[in-house]
Amino acid sequence: xxxxxxxxAPVALDATDRLLLAALAQDARQAVxxxxxxxxxxxxxxxxxxxxxxxxxxxxxxxxxxDPRALGYTLQAIVRVKPLPGxxxxxxxxxxxxxxFVECDKVTGDDCFIxxxxxxxxxxxxxxxxKVTERAETSTAIVKSTPVARRLPPLD
Length: 156
Fold this sequence. Notes:
By secondary structure, the protein is of the alpha+beta class.
């Protein structure tokens, strides 16, 4: 989670901040001198802007993005999870302990959780879900493609 409080006022971004965030989203490992060239500032000014965006909680952390297929994960599944009465926290703990669950959101509506799984094979699905279905109902969809990959929200 961000260091900023959720109730704090949104951070105002200028055009340079937006350019900087877009450039970092494309390649967070690029040199500050390259970022500076892209946004039209000096390297020290660019580095200071990055530090300010981190301090304000706009940039939470820098990370690596991998291609799961390169690691043999040929399938992705989206699983909706509806815990049985009194099982909410236990289901959440089970999901946290299963490494194939790479993402999980607690949501409103009929289901309590929407999760993303990476799988080596379809046979793995029953094995993984059996750990959850003792305490919850599940509904699974296999991902065919990703027309919109995770991206930055609009930076207006």
